Amino acid sequence: MHFVLGAGGAMGAYQAGAVLGLLEAGIVPDVLHGCSAGALNAAFLAAQPDVRRARELAGWWANGSTSRLLMPGWRSHVRGLPAMVRRGARGLLDDRPLRQLIEANVPAHDISELAVPIHVTTTCLDCAAAEQHSRGDVGDMLVASCALPGLLAPVRLPDGHFHVDGGIVCGVPVESALAAAGPDDCVIVIDCGGAPVTCWPGEDGSDRACALPVVAGREPFVPPVERSKAMVDVVLQAFAVARGVANRASVAAAKGDPRVRIVPHVTDAWAAGLVGDVGSGPRDLRQAAALVTSGRAATSAWLSRRGADLLRSV
After folding, report:
1. Alpha carbons within 13 A on the beta-carbon side of 63
2. Which pLDDT tens digit goes with each residue over 209-253?
């Protein structure tokens, strides 16, 4: 059983809820593939893939320290820019808080030491391609996978190249998971990007629900974007657009593979009336607790309707 945990910033809270729903149903990963926020979730879970650990992961997303990490206030922007210019830094934000968070929650020095094999996706700036890593320093690998260009500095990895957020070219690393999976393996994809790229046709003929009943009259889902005109937010909005294009391209071909099972996206949960306010952008964690609940509910509903049969058919 391969879990593919895609990128998505604050939507990683929804993904954590979906993971909890799967574990509660007895669906346990043998291999984990993660990118950006999905890499954080994958590494956290890979230490011990059970319900207790999944509940801890859900709690981690709702924790205030996580919120402050992903939502630095305007004072951080004001203080950070002059310091960045003075020292010639390649990122506006200090990556040490993220490293400390990883160190406190992922009990390993190297990702190869985790209980379940994990593959972390980064983007190699020198090679202009996605790279998959199954070994390497936990902090370096996960920070590199989350290093949004302009916000966090690129990370030089043991290959000698600089790496940044894997979501630039491969936010949902399903192709690499399929390449590693056997002919009888199941590949479960949990995409948490803001824009819908993994939706299946709904029961009403639309493309808005993943085997979930659509609420009549429900307004179309609008992906959250950064609303201010600050430089950082413009960069993040542009990145979100580019990531959406890359994600759609990487997922399109894989959707036809009989081994692939796609857990309802937040768009599907919205169409089914299982999610409300999702926040204002990839760093907005004010709705984290609600997103965890929604991800769990959507996944449980999917399993009760079609998911269990689909998993057994592999």
Report:
1. 13
2. 566 888 888 887 777 665 555 566 666 677 777 777 777 777 777
Between strands 31-35 and 118-124, the pairing is parallel
Number of Cβ within 10 Å of residue 216's Cβ equals 7
- pLDDT attached to residue 277: 80
Q: Are 239 and 149 in contact (CB under 8 A)?
A: yes
Burial degree of 69 (CB within 10 A; 0-12, 13-18, 19+)? middle
Neighbours of 86 (CB within 10 A): 8
Give the length of the chain: 314
- Name the phi and psi angles at 155, rounded to 5: -110, 125
Q: Which two tokens stand for residue 75?
A: 């004072």
Q: What DSSP state is assigned to residue 113?
A: G
Instruction: Give the Cα separation of 306 and 303 in Å (integer).
Output: 6
pLDDT tens-digit map of 118-175: 999 999 999 989 999 999 999 999 999 999 887 788 999 999 999 999 988 888 999 9
Q: Under 8 Å CB-to-CB from 160, ≥6 apart: which residues?
A: none
Q: For residues 288 and 280, what is the distance between their CA atoms, to the nearest angstrom? A: 12
- Residue 91, classed as helix, strand or coil, is strand
- Distance between CA atoms of 52 and 20, rounded to whole angstroms? 9
Q: Is 40 left (phi over 0), alpha (psi -120 to 50) or beta?
A: alpha
What is the DSSP-derived secondary structure letter of residue 254?
A: G
